[in-house]
Amino acid sequence: MAAPTLISWNITRRCNLACGHCYLDAVQRKRDAGDEQGLQEASRVVQEIAELAPGAMLVLTGGEPLLRHDLEDIVSRAADTGLMPVIGTNGLMLDEQRAQRLRKAGAVGVGISLDSVSSKFHDALRGKSGAWAGAMAGMRAARESGLRVLMQTTLFAENRDEIAGFADLATDVRAMALNFFFLVCTGRGVTQTDLTPSAYEESLLAILDLQRARTDLMVRARCAPYARKMLGLHAGEASNGYAEWSSACLAGRSYLRIGPQGDVTPCPYVPRASGSVRRQTLREIWETGPDFVRLRGEMPSGKCGKCDYRVSCGGCRARSLATSGDLMAEDSKCTYCPASSVSPERQPIRQPIAVVWTLEAQRLLDRIPGFVREKVRHNLETKAQAAGELSISADFMRAHRPASLPFGRPGSGT
What we know:
414 residues; ten-stranded mixed β-sheet; alpha/beta; disordered C terminus; 15 helices
């Protein structure tokens, strides 16, 4: 069974903002909540994560994770086990001094939320005047301290015409990536007005156009598996920067989320727990948790189950759960209607590639972050096969190294 490559961990519900779309329904408190995982318990969970998912990206978020006085300790423990810690924050508490401490502890980057190219909508959504300015200052402090910056944007009717402007802003603060999230109405997000299906599709088309135009910036749509359908890419097909392994929703397949009290779900927008790290090991939950088993073993129902993109897209499972109560129901946001003559998409069969890795090359591969390691492996094996090579050496790896990886392990040379 494949291991998760990306893990999101809400290490606290405590927050300094009151965002109207918060999936966690985070709360403003002056003190830490007594039922949240303390440092000793968090250290045990870090070890379980590292054993289940070596080299995975670990997103430490909240609430507001910078409110935890022991955040640097958790980051340090994660980095020491070979994980790639990233901090998910609103940026208000991130000055250069704190950013430097996080980097010294082993953090490789920060994801900072920004919901408008100007302050009015962002501050109103987040319930605090000055929130936009604080997020911008946090991004600049992170960059000055050597941390990578990911700008995180949730799309609404009020800001979806700013998509190109977000890219300009991301370039201005020297962000590595710009991630557009499509709202799933859970937590306080149930009070927000979601995009209509047509507005959703128009926004996604604008993001795909931006990807083609802005090669200087990594631009991605999150919670939007329909991108594969809109690009005409079935499972196993690659084109225009979308690799053949780029597929449907990651939830339960290569992604999981841990909550502040230890509950584990396939993604942050699936609120019901499949287990708790206070009662079970993380590996047991990953391998046997009810929703994890369903997501890996079942095809969706309704029109999603009959679709010729049911594997490469498959719809957003969290959105299906939020709107119908069934994790595997059809996704009502999708407007695509396959022709009656097409057959439901089948799972592609990947043929093994017969190449041998030298010991030195294998050691180099093992130093690549776990969340991209298998993708790098497959790409290099494909290139070796095309070149008629029977083995992959360290020199072959260096000659065919990607221009950049999303994150390099500090001090590793990757």
